Amino acid sequence: MLKEPLTMQFPVIPLDRLIGAERAAEFINSLVRDLITQDLLPEPAAYRIVCEGVLDGDPFLLTDPGQAWVPRPGTTGPTPGLLLIVQRDADQLTVEDEHGQRHRIPVCALNSYRLDQWCWARPDTTSRR
Length: 129
What we know:
Blueprint: H1 6-9, H2 15-19, H3 21-38, H4 43-56, H5 59-62, E1 67-71, E2 83-89, E3 92-97, E4 102-106, E5 113-118
Antiparallel strand pairs: 1-2, 1-5, 2-3, 3-4
């Protein structure tokens, strides 16, 4: 049975609309570099994995401090309506819910959420000429 990509089921907001084209490229390139150096993947394979993950809204690749994640359409159950990413430590997150309460959750808990907003908190490394 083929796994249907998340983008077929749920709309994902393109990164360039959230943080701009230059920052999206910077973020994607940093993910690719990490896969090349840490996992020893060839560049084409690293790009494919990152691009597919970004298009699917994969929280393991995308989660970064300063982001707001909301439940995917159709999500049921007792899930907070909004989670703000405060800190990421490998596969654990510190998040703040819509009531201002902080929680430690695994990154995989965001599988039922989608990235909705991103306040870019990384240093600006793009050069302006």
